[in-house]
Amino acid sequence: MENRVYYGEYSLRHWIDLVLKQNIVLPDYQRYFVWNEKKVETLIETFKKKQFVPPVTIGAFKIGDSNENLLLDGQQRITSILLAYLGLYPDAANYKLKLDSFANDNDDDDDNEDISDVIYDNVLEWNFKSLVKKGTSKVDILSNIQHGNYKHTNLSITDEFLDNHFLGFSYLVPQTSDEQTQQKYYSSVFRNINIQGETLLPQESRASLYFLDQELVGLFNPDFSKKIRIKLVSSESKSDFIRYLALLSQYHIDGDSWKIARGYKQKMEKLYEEYIFSAINGGTSDIFGTFLSVFPNKEYKAQLDKLENTLAEMDLFKKYTSIIELDTYLFGIIYYILFEKKNIDISEKDNITSKLEDKIANYKLDSSHLKSPNNLGNLRRRISESIAIYGEYTVHES
């Protein structure tokens, strides 16, 4: 495929207008905004001192008769310029306090976390889309933000500064209108870009592969996975659904957990990426079997909905304190519903939960397991024993 690349620069005011009018958009696989306040301030000082700021990369994406401009590289810089102009910065500390207070005040409300997300922007998983939804001007946005969700800042952004300082760009234009070809091209571009020295986390890098087949994004990264979280001492993250799909696909071939991830001990991320490629290509893999035998015609929504409902009935949408707990609860239930097309007998919920909790307690009494839960032997044990417990309480679909 022959591609064209154009180069230029825009004033900071023009970049702000492009964002507010949504003439440039973030691809779904882009990471969250991760710069701290100091880095935002440093960027603005760099502009004021007329020092070099790396250009951003925009890609044209044709969808039918329309055209989108994707922000491939430079999200942190563009967002920082927008935040400085608005005089705002996402207040993560205050947001956490608001959530804790909201949860305590609504302890008996099963939906309290969802309600709080409606009231407050989730600044822990945030990008500038949250602001441009509130309006196309500074006045509109400032009048629509929730009090306490953002800090107010003052970096002395004047009209003269916006009009007389510039940020360069590269503009990529693939010479094709075929969406799949464009998707492959931009996925490759994204994965080869080093964003302003900020190394991508494995899941962030992997997410760019989802762009290769939009049909499968809902399977690779289902919305409900956000409601299954691991809370550690200083951080919190959502469950990694691709990890479960990849490992269980291997188990599904012959039911032998001890073959799982063989040869991938130090490169598990490569295993997960190979699963994504296998699913997208739809062929037969020596490692994962045939994706289409599990999800014929790449249809998965009905089973995924059933999994979501069963997880809710089992009260598994919650925060876990370790990967040991998370794996023990999830491997078996995901395996039987998605891979074996069976239902879990919810009337036996108490018995299932009791056995899972006993198993977790035993793992935590094992110093080796507790110290190295990601050791392949320990991981394989959790897979096979979680599947064995749930297997006692499965029924065929009616």
Description:
The structure is a single chain. The protein folds into 2 domains: 3-196, no CATH class; 214-396, no CATH class. It is α+β, with helices and mostly antiparallel strands. It has a 4-stranded mixed beta sheet with strand order 1-6-2-3. The protein has a 3-stranded mixed beta sheet with strand order 8-7-11. The protein has a two-stranded antiparallel ribbon with strand order 4-5. Strand 2 and strand 3 (66-73) form a beta hairpin. Residues 108-117 have low confidence and may be disordered. Helices cover 50% and strands 15% of the residues. The chain has helices at residues 12-20, 37-48, 75-86, 92-105, 112-119, 129-132, 138-144, 159-164, 179-191, 202-210, 217-220, 241-254, 268-281, 291-294, 301-313, 323-339, 349-365, 367-371, 376-391; strands at residues 3-11, 56-63, 66-73, 88-90, 150-152, 166-174, 229-231, 236-238, 284-285, 289-290, 319-320, 342-344, 394-396.
Question: In brief, what are we looking at here?
Answer:
The chain has helices spanning 12-20, 37-48, 75-86, 92-105, 112-119, 129-132, 138-144, 159-164, 179-191, 202-210, 217-220, 241-254, 268-281, 291-294, 301-313, 323-339, 349-365, 367-371, 376-391, and strands spanning 3-11, 56-63, 66-73, 88-90, 150-152, 166-174, 229-231, 236-238, 284-285, 289-290, 319-320, 342-344, 394-396.
Give a topology summary.
Layout: E1 3-11, H1 12-20, H2 37-48, E2 56-63, E3 66-73, H3 75-86, E4 88-90, H4 92-105, H5 112-119, H6 129-132, H7 138-144, E5 150-152, H8 159-164, E6 166-174, H9 179-191, H10 202-210, H11 217-220, E7 229-231, E8 236-238, H12 241-254, H13 268-281, E9 284-285, E10 289-290, H14 291-294, H15 301-313, E11 319-320, H16 323-339, E12 342-344, H17 349-365, H18 367-371, H19 376-391, E13 394-396
Parallel strand pairs: 2-6, 7-11
Antiparallel strand pairs: 1-6, 2-3, 4-5, 7-8, 9-10, 12-13
Helix pairs in contact: 1-3, 2-3, 9-10, 10-13, 12-13, 12-16, 15-16, 16-17, 16-19, 17-19
